[in-house]
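Fold this sequence, please.
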Amino acid sequence: NVTISGTPASGDSFTVTPATQGNTDVFATIDSVITALQQPVDGNQAAAANLTNVVSTAAGELGNSLTNVTTVQAAVGGREQQVKTLNSVNGNESTQNTNNLTNITDIDMSTVLSQFVLVQNALTAAQKTFAAASNLSLFQVINP
């Protein structure tokens, strides 16, 4: 918005241009404020307006820069947490894989074979018992 007040005099002129895009260089923003502060503004309305514009623009740019830094910091923090979690998961999996390998390679073959034969005999007995029980019927007892 541009507001012009006062009575125009002969030869008065003004120029309105669009604002420049926000500066992403924080140090350049601070330099522009320093330069504007070094210019005298006593009784010069144009210089006072320029100083006001430079300071308000710099405040906006510094606010945007802070927001950008905070956003990047949050993203980096999230990635750091993911890396820590993956390191923990990988450490746990490595430990589990080592335990599994130890369990597989450090077996007593005679113990494993005797356990296998024991389970196999139990299975055979259960199958024979089921086969014998399924042939039983109350009608076979009544009508021989």
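The CA atoms of residues 46 and 52 lie 10 Å apart. DSSP finds four helices and no strands in the chain.
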